[in-house]
């Protein structure tokens, strides 16, 4: 362990949420025993984790799809490093679904056998920034910021849970996973593409998982994963976990807006230009393109 902060726990160069993480678990993470049929959703925070967790559990378990099971997201596909409900992962029946924010170099080494599946979801970093600003002001377990400008500086410096989104070094989050993609059995998904065409995205995920869905099942998955329905689904939206287990500093929800280009409502021209300069410098040779905005009428 290096570094010390009330909210951040730095372990091997990466910032974990101090109040959720178990340092002894981290020390053994490398040797965490994976199974060939494990599935991991891996993201930088605020990139569509909970959404993809919901899609995965709907694909795998008819019970959720038919609303016959009363199991919340944190129990359907628990966070590997933030095991809120102290689930005994070894006793968990297969197939196990996990979520995680770990950078590629902290992932259990068993994932490199390329059997267990990884779904990496990315989102344009300006919307990540805005989503994260609201989220960290809302929860007592994250450091609050007075304004977007203040939070943006922390974000650009990597002084947040998840460390740097931006990267010029291959060990940072997005680039690290992308550049080491051949070491893993990995599918890259893009938040904005999921927004634009959820049905095709669900099909892409189910095909990667080798889980064939009937038309009827596909409809049910899509229907329960669209923002408006997920937002009011108490098993999917984390509301009771945030309120009763983690603690709210200000009123709000995990499913906040779920749109593309919300940053345009928050960043000043100067802030946006500063962000662009950093982005261009650090990501100039990165081959994937990001979707920064969409016609607002299409973004329903
Ligand atoms: N079904 C859905 N459709 C679109 N966005 C969703 C979604 N479920 C969650 N999100 C959005 O994903 C973000 C949270 O990401 P994560 O789960 O990685 O923490 C939030 O973004 P906003 O704060 O911009 O609304 C949340 O609203
Ligand atoms: C344990 C559930 C949980 C809650 C909040 C989280 O925040 S973040 O995604 O790391 O920003 C993560 C896990």
Automatic annotation (TrEMBL):
Enzyme Commission number: 2.8.2.-
Database matches in Gene3D superfamilies: P-loop containing nucleotide triphosphate hydrolases
InterPro entries (UniProt xref): P-loop_NTPase, Sulfotransferase_dom
Molecular function via GO: aryl sulfotransferase activity
One Pfam family hit: Sulfotransfer_1
Gene Ontology, cellular component aspect: cytoplasm
Catalytic activity: 4-ethylphenol + 3'-phosphoadenylyl sulfate = 4-ethylphenyl sulfate + adenosine 3',5'-bisphosphate + H(+)
Domain of life: Eukaryota
Record's subcellular location: Cytoplasm
Keywords: Cytoplasm, Transferase
Sequence ranges assigned to domain Sulfotransferase in this UniProt record: 36-286
Predominant cellular place of this UniProt entry's protein: cytoplasm
Protein name: Sulfotransferase
Lineage of the species this protein comes from: Eukaryota, Metazoa, Chordata, Craniata, Vertebrata
Gene it is expressed from: LOC113898898
């Amino acid at each position: 362990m290096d570094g010390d902060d009330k909210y951040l726990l730095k372990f091997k160069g990466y910032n974990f949420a101090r109040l959720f993480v178990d340092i002894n678990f981290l020390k053994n993470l490398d040797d965490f025993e994976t199974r060939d049929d494990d599935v991991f959703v891996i993201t930088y925070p605020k990139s569509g984790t909970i959404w993809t967790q919901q899609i995965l559990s709907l694909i795998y378990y008819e019970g959720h799809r038919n609303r016959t099971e009363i199991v919340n997201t944190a129990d359907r596909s628990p966070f590997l490093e933030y095991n809120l409900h102290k689930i005994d992962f070894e006793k968990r029946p297969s197939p196990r679904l996990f979520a995680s924010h770990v950078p590629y170099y902290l992932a259990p080494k068993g994932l490199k056998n390329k059997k267990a599946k990884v779904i990496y979801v990315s989102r344009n970093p300006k919307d990540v920034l805005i989503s994260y600003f609201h989220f960290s002001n809302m929860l007592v377990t994250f450091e609050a910021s007075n304004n977007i400008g203040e939070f943006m500086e922390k974000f650009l410096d990597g002084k947040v849970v998840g460390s740097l989104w931006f990267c010029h070094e291959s060990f940072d989050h997005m680039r690290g996973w992308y550049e080491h993609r051949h070491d893993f059995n990995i599918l890259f998904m893009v938040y904005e593409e999921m927004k634009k065409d959820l049905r095709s995205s669900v099909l892409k995920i189910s095909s990667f998982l080798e889980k064939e869905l009937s038309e009827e099942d596909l409809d049910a998955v899509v229907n329960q994963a669209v923002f408006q329905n997920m937002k009011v689904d108490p098993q999917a939206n984390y509301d009771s976990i945030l309120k009763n287990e983690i603690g709210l500093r200000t009123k709000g929800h995990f499913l906040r807006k779920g749109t593309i280009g919300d940053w345009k409502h928050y960043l000043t021209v100067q802030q946006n230009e500063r962000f662009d300069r950093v982005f261009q410098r650090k990501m100039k040779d990165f081959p994937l393109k990001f979707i920064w905005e969409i016609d607002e009428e299409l973004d329903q």
